[in-house]
Amino acid sequence: MTEVGMGEIKVKVRKIKRTRRENKYKHYPIVEDNSTSAHEYWEPIVNTGLWSIKGYQVVKGPWGGGTVEESLRREPKEFMVIDRAAFALYSHSYGLVSPFFRGLLEGKLKGTKCPKCGTVYCPPRAHCWNPKCRVADCEWLDLPLTGVIHTFTVQCLAAAPFEHQLPFSMGWVKIDGADTTLAMMLHISPRELFIGQKVKIGFVPKEQRKGDLTDCYAVAVPGQKVPDWACLQKDPKELESLEASMKQTIEFIKKRYGLDNSLKVRGW
Amino acid sequence: MAGDERVAICDGGIFRPDLWHGENAEEGVAIAYQELLKNVPNLTTDDIDALCMSYFSDHLNGQLCMGWIVQDYLGLHNKPGYRVESGGSTSIDAIVNSYYMIKSGMFDVILIPGWEWMCEVDVATTNEMIASAADTDWDFPVGGYYNAYYAALEVRHMQLYGETCEDLGRIAVKNHNNSLRWPYSQWLSQHGKAPITLNDYWKSRLVCWPYRVLNTAVMSEGACVLLMATESKARRFTDTPMWIAGVGLGTDSMRPGDRTVDFAYEGMKDEAKIYPDFVEPIKTPYPDMANFASLHIAAKRAYPQAGITNPLRELDLIELFAPYDGVELCLWEDLMLCPRGEGKTLIREGIVEYGGECPSNLSGGLTASGHPVGATSLYYTLFLYWQLAGKINEKCGPKGLQVPDARKALITGHGGTGCQGAAVIFESD
Q1: Which positions in chain A touch B139 (Cβ < 8 Å)?
Q2: What letter would DSSP give residue B96?
Q3: CB distance B206–A245 less than 8 Å?
Q4: To the nearest whole angstrom, how far is the Cα of B228 from the nearest Cα of chain A?
Q5: Residue numbers of B between 207 and 226 with CB closer than 8 Å to A
Q6: What does the pLDDT look like over B85-112, one tens digit per residue?
Q7: Which H or E run includes B417?
Q8: Which neighbouring-strand residues pair with A94?
Q9: pLDDT tens digits for A190-202?
Q10: Phi then psi dihedrals of residue B308, to 5 deg
């Protein structure tokens, strides 16, 4: 038993002794299992109770209706604020497009093609969305590991699971031969990054692959010149200001996570 | 037959949006409802035929069926009522649903309580929970959240049509300074009364290039209630009913990356006349990862109902659902206030400023005045109601941005990256 919580309120965490995780797919064989450790990690947390209250604070703040000024004129009230955690681990099927994600594990990019209109989808669709094709079943094909940047952004603030990777660029890449565009990380310096840039798709080392889109990333095909119309670089002031923000972000990440995310260390 | 009558917005009430409130959601809604009852002294609970609850997230508060709590808290739990949910579109869809319910002839008077309490989890988690409205298999796992999606859409639009970061800054300055004239504004509460300049814009923190903090929607807790009724009932509640003159809905692909083969919008190639030579053409040029086809088609459906042929000239003001400033610029194009690619001209020439031909987001909008999702479009509809009723100065004091003789207004709302949207046109007598 370990205790977690704050102040007077402690919650007992039961360690789960289980050699085999719950088998949701009783009637069907599990061909590959790469998630038992995830369940071992999550289940004790889940078992602290979805809605059990872990602690509280009392906050003195404004109250009541009306305008900003009216509410600030009132004597503040004290509000009790509780902390309550909710967790869940979802076992979600990638469905009929599972071959795409298993392809990532092999370092391959797969797409689908509609036999009627010929549209090539990457991200793949199991069924064609062209209204003329009446939800036709699509066929699988292998795609090359090359493409073109359709659009991009450079993030200096990110959602929780990506924060430690800041600053980074992500964007949508039109894989050669495909008609749709695929979101992925771009390992390209903002100095070089532009719409229309030719890229190669790389993969993280095999043992680190998880069968999701973070297994792959795009790098620039060397030797391309940034065109003078490129929106990020055409105003040098803008690029400068972005780089200053990236520098601040790198310092913040170093302080918070002890990670050196400078472009030099990352190699891009 | 009730369904033949016009449908009106008959006032409402606000519990102002802010980063945090001590009151919880049902209390906030009750405070907004108190204000409605004060504004409409003739309204009794017997008048209300049904409720349409508007809130977007179950995750943010860890409470399913929050609508039941609110309906019971108001003592209206003997009435028919259900919840509408469609991400950022939730609150405009609650208005559209109520309009259809009244038009069906089944109900005469509908109360819409809307709210969102977005700050119970920390901001990073709120961002993640909102991002789960994006495709969690394909877009979320690669560093994706809405700041990034919308930034990438704006980068593409910027590359195609040449607006600059300074144009985005001008929109940010316009909206924040407008919001100082609206006394319920969240920016006013968080920042105080000092206007901002382009210089402040350049200094504000970069979130996802090209968007800075001042370009992005705020996180809010807040509530708003609206009262909607048939013409004959509306006359009992208000002397200045705001009529719903046109309603259009539209949807687009879940993943913005699929909009390069957006077959459903294939017939709109004429919208893509300005497509620069240096960018390789794609299979369907509209909307691309740049514009918002869902709102374009929504407007195309709504304008003829309201008899609008030249929106820039005929609309006296507009309130656009723009969680990021580039969205406001793109929507001017998609709503046909200007040709595709010309959004930048409207901000550069002051056409969308107060005093311009078609002021946009005089309330300050989502990036300044507040964005409690389930209440958002109700809050801005109420702003338009007070505009068309000529009551802005009564509500805001002499500094309020009343558009003189405002008769026709438009509001939009949308969810996701424009995955679903609506345009509603209002007019006064």
Answers
A1: 183
A2: H
A3: yes
A4: 22
A5: 207-210
A6: 999 999 999 999 999 999 999 999 999 9
A7: none
A8: none
A9: 999 999 999 999 9
A10: -95, 125
The whole-angstrom separation of Cα A158 and Cα A195 is 22
pLDDT tens track for B132-146: 899 999 999 898 789
* pLDDT in the model for residue B269: 60
Tell me the one-letter amino acid at B23: E
SS (H, E, C) chain A: CEEEEECCEEEEECCCCCCCCCCCCCCCCCCCCCCHHHHHHHHHHHCCCCCCEEEEEEEEECCCCECHHHHHHCCCEEEEEEEECCCCCCCCCCHHHHHHHHHHHCCCEEEEECCCCCCEECCCCCECCCHHHCCCECEEEEECCEEEEEEEEEECCCCHHHHHHCCEEEEEEEECCCCCCEEEEECCCCCCCCCCCEEEEEECCHHHCCCCHHHEEEEECCCCCCCCCCCCCCCHHHHHHHHHHHHHHHHHHHHHHCCCCCHHHHCC
Distance CA B198, CA A143 (A): 46
Dist. CA B43–CA B111, nearest whole Å: 11
- Percent of chain B surpassing pLDDT 90: 90
Which among B216, B207, B209, B214 has a CA at the least distance from the CA of B152? Answer: B209
* CA of residue A234 relative to chain centroid, distance: 30
Give residue-wise pLDDT tens across range B169-189.
999 999 999 999 999 999 999
- What kind and span of H or E run contains B372? none
pLDDT computed for residue B143 by the predictor: 80
Put simply, the chain B residues between 72 and 131 with a CB less than 8 A from any chain A CB are 124-125, 127-128, 131
- The larger pLDDT score, comparing residue A179 to residue A28, is at A179
Distance in Å, alpha carbon of A208 to nearest chain B alpha carbon? 15
For A211, list phi and psi in degrees, rounded to 5: 75, 30
Q: Residue A180 is nearest to which of B131, B189, B261, comparing CB atoms?
A: B261
Beta bridge partners of B109: B229
B423 touches chain A (CB under 8 A): no
Average pLDDT, rounded, for chain B: 95
What lies within 8 Å, CB to CB, of A240 at 6+ separation is none
Q: Which among A14, A21, A16 is positioned nearest to A52, based on CA atoms? A: A14
**Beta carbons of B367 and B325 less than 8 angstroms apart:** yes
Contact B148, B417 (CB under 8 A): no
The span from the first CA to the last CA of chain B, in angstroms, equals 22
The structural architecture, per CATH, of the domain B2-121+219-237 is: 3-Layer(aba) Sandwich (3.40)
Q: At a CB cut-off of 8 Å and minimum separation 6, what does A236 contact? A: none
User: Residue B26 in 3-state DSSP?
Assistant: helix
Domain boundaries of chain B, sorted by first residue: 2-121+219-237
Specify the DSSP class assigned to residue B336: T
Q: How confident is the model at residue A155 (pLDDT cuts 50, 70, 90)?
A: very high
Phi, psi of A35 (to 5 degrees): -130, 5
Give the C-alpha separation, A89 to A105, whole Å.
22
For chain A, domain boundaries: 2-84, 95-143, 145-266
Q: What is the mean pLDDT of residues B339-347?
A: 95
DSSP code, position B146: H
Residues B353, B368: Cα–Cα separation, whole Å:
15
The dihedral region occupied by B62, where left means phi > 0, alpha psi between -120 and 50, and beta the remainder, is: left
- Please, are residues B393 and B402 in contact by the beta-carbon 8 Å criterion? yes
Give the distance from residue A228's alpha carbon to the nearest chain B alpha carbon, in angstroms: 11
